[in-house]
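Posting this for the archive.
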Amino acid sequence: MTQQSLSTRAWAEMALLALIWGASFLAIKLALEEVPVFTLVAHRVYWATLLLWIYVLWRGLDIPRSPKIWGAFLIMGILNNIIPFTLMAWGQQFIETGLTSIFNAATAIFGVLVAAMFFRDERLTVRRGIGVCIAFAGVAVAIGLDSFASFDIRSLAQLAVIGGTVSYAFAAAWARGYLSGLAPQVAAAGMLTGATVIMLPLAWVIDGAPEMPQLPVTFAAIGYFAILGTAIAYLLYYRVLSMAGSGNAMIVTLLIPPVAIILGAVVLGERLAPEAFAGFTLLALGLMILDGRMLQMFRKSRGPEKS
């Protein structure tokens, strides 16, 4: 399905998904004011797991019984939930929500590189190589030259968020290799179960016994990023994939940062440096080249070459 043939409903659901995920960065930032990182991630995966299993049982979807599949769920939970959720939440303590969302958009770049490493049909073509290079330049510009000159906690936080995107890329490759053929809703519930099994005791050991939050905004933030930003967002994402196709998922990636940037500015008074916007522009250009449709549209606009 091409971008031009997307239905109004598909566009609306992609915009809704971008809004939900974009606002999740704000919710995490607000919760971090009271909840430590590992406890926050434990909340996120635990409540999302419960909701997704309720959905799976309600739909009567087949639940895998193979120990091999459940082992794959465990690895997937580590790669797609524990590592990126923890690294990004830790990083968000020291950088703006909008900047975190910009780095998060780099997931597609690392996804292309990791896929090229493991799958023969995902080789790195010239076009993809150019797109990756431009997108990487965008990430470097967003980080800022000062971060390369003087390494501080903010620099480390930015690298932590980027590390989360690398983990997402490896998770995508793992899912393709070991979880293909499963209903995506079951795969999501399974990986979140694996993440919960590890994250609950880990949070207890590192952060101590969980304490009840004191601020109402913290309850609202946890409820948002666990239920809407994780469980509901996964279900909506699979609906978008079925309607729009995987190629159009990159549109959502590009819509998320503007949402996070605006919310961070309005609610938290955040102001991003000009290089962050310049970096996002380059990153978006690189992602569009990776997508390939921009070049196709340009060629069509030129028309057939005359001899």
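The chain has one domain: 3-298. The chain has a mean pLDDT of 86.
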